[in-house]
Structure formats: structure tokens, C-alpha cells
Amino acid sequence: MKVYLIGMGMGAPETMTVWALEAVKGCATLVGAPRLLEPFQESHTCVPLIAGSDIAEYIEKQQEGPIGVLLSGDTGFYSGAKKLWTLLGSHEVITIPGISSLSYFCARLHTSWQDVKIVSAHGRSHNVVGEIQRNSRTFALTGGATRAEDICKELTRRGLGGVTVSVGERLSYPDERIVTGTAAELAEQSFADLSVLLAENPDPVVRPFNSPGLPDGAFLRGDVPMTKEEVRALAISKLRLEEHHVVWDVGAGTGSVSVECALACPAGQVYAVEKKEEALALLAENKARFHTGNLVVVPGSAPAALEDLPAPDRVFLGGTSGELEEILHLIFRKNPAARVVCTAVTLETVAEAARLFASLEGADMVQVSATRTRQAGRYHLMDAQNPVWIFSGEGRP
């Protein structure tokens, strides 16, 4: 039997293509969401079904066709057509594309969309705010557990309340509404469940290159201790960061590790925990220097300062002030599967870390010694740095 999968555009018949309109006219029976069926109630037999399995089950029971399945937007853009292609494999399926919400919305805003990052939070879990954080332009489908105002509230919480956001609801219908403002402004409004959103971030988190190893001279330091470039690059590689991770940097100092982690996790969040006032000031300056809007400076001492932080995926321990065991207990209480990397320079800390990390999954201990050269007149001398031990391991889920 012949089955048409018809992209309906925004829903109003005016946004349908001529091809789609002709296909609808040729089908005595139409199946789809009630909203899409409304214009054809008097002229067709309309069957309100939404789930792909329900639609396929209904079609299998029919003897005559063709049958038209109405799908919102474009059949290739987060559409139910993907599932139906598999379910209707025994039929002659003709797919008719439509105007997507992305294309329609950007046209209404008088803007192009070829450089837009596209995500969907409609009926699924997606880190939309993380995508906005790392992209200059982001389009999102919203609905279900994630509404447009929720995204704006989270942007504001992360310090991105100034990002320009446009929200569209009931697109193509007489009561269509399109609103543009800052995330902070739109966070106070309410929007329809099935809305679309375009966010423009003038200062996204962008890594200057694909590997860790920013030169030490790139950071403001003062007299605050800093994890040096060679050790930092190795420690971060052992963290095994992914772009969406939540990271704690405990004893952050100048923030050299925090910044590297923030650049490596553009869709994630990094919490730099530090107790010294001078270091906190440098942390803030280095955060601004590298435009790492996903880095949050947390004043205080661990483990107390960690209690209210979200569960981490990764933790770097650069300074624990003798509280290593208590900090590890708290980390694994928050996330039993967290991966932790710890650096140590004193024998006392090395002994304690060796004892505590021995029980972790994939426990590893490496001692690193770096020697740099420095110029003395026309000669170059070897300048040995302090040896550093790097411990790494994971908890068990």
C-alpha cells in the first residue's frame, strides 16, 4: 500500500508546499497529531495518533490506500519519519519534506542559519545551556521537561544572563508570538511547551588549540603557587575530560588547571575552589583573560566548600591542606564513579595519597621531573624543577 509521510511545515496550511497539499488531497485518510489534522476534519477521515508504533499498527490493519501521515516541520529534522521508515518497510513509502521550524523561525527573524548549532531538548535530555555556552549561535527545540524559560533561567544562573535570546511559539498560527531579549529578561516570562529558541552568545568558550599545555606566561600569577605547564598537561590528560563534564579543581591557586579544564569542557562546568584571597583575585582575572564563562570561582576551604557543589565527573586535587581523605570521601559520596587526579610534592602527601588511591579503580602513580633551560649570557643552563607525583584513579559505580 502507498503511504505518504508529509512534512506539514509549521502547521498552518499556508506553510505547506504544493507537493504536500497535492498529497493530502489524494489521501482519503490522514493520520497524525490532532493539531495537524484540524484543517482537514471536514474533508478527510482523520485518525489522531502520535506514536510511531501506533501509526504503523493502524496502517497495517487498513486494506485501502493511499494513507497520509502528517508530520510537523520537515521530515528530516527531528521528525517521526525516521522511525516510520523502519516500521513501514513493507509499504511503498513516499516522503515529502516540509519547511522546518529552524528555517521558518530564522526567516521571521531576518537571519541566516547556516552557522547555527542545532540541538533538541524536546522530549529528551540535552545540555542546551552547555551548547549555548560554547557556540556563538544555537538553535533549540524545547518542550516537555525543558522549556524556553528554564534555559533562560539556567543561562542567567551561569552568568550568561546577557546573552541575546529569541523565542518563538505557535509559529505560523494567528496567535504566533516571537520575543527577543536577554536571557535574564526572558527568564521571567512563560512560553508554550513546544517553543523554539535562538541564542546568540558574543563570547563563547573556545579552546585556542586541541590539547592542554597553555604556556605558564599566559597566566597572571603573582606569588600564588601554580601547577606548571609540563605537569599540568600530563595531569589534565589523566583526567580524561569530555566536553560536557562537571569538574572540581580543589586548591585552584591561580586557576591554571581550572582554565585548561574549562577550555576542554566547553559544554560543562568547572568549579575552582580556593581559600586564599590573593589567589581568588588572580582566579577571577585569569577567568576573564581566557573568556571561560563556564568557570565558577568558589571561595572557601575543602571539604566544607564542596558540600553545595553539583556532583563532579572529574576532580583535580592541587592542594588539600591535610584533608585528602575527607575530600575523597565527599567526592565519592557525591559521585561513586568520579575520576580523581591528585598532585603531591611532599613525602607526607605522597605517602597518604599512595595509601588512599590504592583502593581506586585503575589506580596509577607517576613521578614527573622537568628540567628547563635558562639563559646565562651566551650559555644555557639546566634549571631543574621540583619533582611532582601524580596520582589518578576512579571510584566504582
UniProtKB/TrEMBL annotation:
Keywords in alphabetical order: Cobalamin biosynthesis, Methyltransferase, S-adenosyl-L-methionine, Transferase
Which species expresses this protein natively? Answer: Candidatus Flavonifractor intestinigallinarum
The cross-references to SUPFAM superfamilies, in alphabetical order and at most eight, read: S-adenosyl-L-methionine-dependent methyltransferases, Tetrapyrrole methylase
Lineage of source species: Bacteria, Bacillati, Bacillota, Clostridia, Eubacteriales
NCBIfam families assigned = CbiE (TIGR02467), CbiT (TIGR02469)
Q: Does the keyword S-adenosyl-L-methionine apply?
A: yes
The record's Pfam families line, in alphabetical order, gives: TP_methylase
Instruction: Give the InterPro entries listed for this entry.
Output: 4pyrrol_Mease, 4pyrrol_Methylase_sf, 4pyrrole_Mease_sub1, 4pyrrole_Mease_sub2, CbiE, Cbl_synth_CobL, Cbl_synth_MTase_CbiT, Cobalamin_biosynth_MTase
**Can the keyword Glycoprotein be found in this entry's annotation?**
no
* Protein name as it appears in the record: Precorrin-6y C5,15-methyltransferase (Decarboxylating) subunit CbiE
Query: Domain Tetrapyrrole methylase: where?
Result: 2-187
